[in-house]
Design a protein that fits this description.
By secondary structure, the protein is α+β, with helices and mostly antiparallel strands. It has five helices and four strands. Strand 2 and strand 3 form a beta hairpin. The protein is globular.
Length: about 120
């Protein structure tokens, strides 16, 4: 079986992304790291295939993406669509938030993540 998660081909890029977190990524990470949210284990800049998810929780097969302005271009939308199809083929759901949502509405963001987690039972 081929390795799908944390492939060597994405290792350096994942490391660079962790070292250069954006403010919205830092804000969300500080609220979901160390099992703070419903005792769920999230990983940041987690490799899935050739893609790198901003955050991933294997317990509930959920990717969290924080979308900067490049996601709203035609190329960005097409890339995100292909990426989402790939994730769905693995049984992984994706939830997206804008930078602005993270900065201005972090409690609503956390509630949406909680709501998504209820749709997929996780081990206790």
């Amino acid at each position: 079986m081929r390795t799908v998660f944390s492939k060597n081909s994405t290792k350096e890029k994942r490391k660079l992304l962790r070292e250069s977190q954006t403010d919205p990524e830092r804000i969300l990470w500080n609220r979901i790291r160390n099992r703070q949210l419903m005792n769920l284990k999230f990983r940041r800049q987690h490799g899935i295939g050739e893609y790198i998810a901003d955050f991933y929780c294997s317990d509930i097969k959920l990717v969290i993406e924080i979308d900067g302005s490049h996601h709203y271009t035609e190329d960005g939308k097409e890339y995100d669509s292909l990426r989402e199809e790939f994730m769905q083929s693995l049984g992984i759901r994706t939830v997206r938030f804008s930078n602005t949502e993270i900065i201005n509405e972090i409690e609503k963001v956390l509630q949406r993540i909680i709501d998504k987690s209820h749709h997929h039972p996780h081990p206790t």
